[in-house]
Specification:
Layout lengths: L5 E7 L4 E4 L5 E14 L6 E13 H10 L5 E11 L2 E13 L11 E8 L6 E8 L2 E4 L3
Parallel strand pairs: 4-6
Antiparallel strand pairs: 1-3, 1-5, 2-3, 3-4, 5-6, 6-9, 7-8
Amino acid sequence: MNLNKAKLIGNLAAEPTAKTLPSKAAVAIFTVATSHAWTDFRTKERHQAAEYHTVTAFGKLDEVVLKYLKKGDRVYVEGRLRTARGKTEIVAQNLIMLGGAKSKNDQAKDEVIVEEQEEAEGVNPMVNVLKRGVCQAHSGK
């Protein structure tokens, strides 16, 4: 048995971008920044390092990312690792919007839950939008 799973909590390092593949499939590409802090046991100095992870989202997740996410937003991303042309990226399968820095205009807006579910046959995905404290989206795959 094999397992290919990645889970991140971080902030968008830049605005998401839209791309259309040669197959005409739409994809959203964004970068999630995570950090790691540690203390040097000899000097007792505190250190911090940032990592930047490229994430791609297809289907309904693509639409959610482009509509709701912006630079600085905090997200939980779950997906699988894929390496192509020497670059490793995360293909998002689940996304939870954890919030971000709200402007004065955004404070009155409710966040939403966006959940994609496939019907029993797995053919026709549906999107349910509910008012909640977080936004959650699934690729359905």
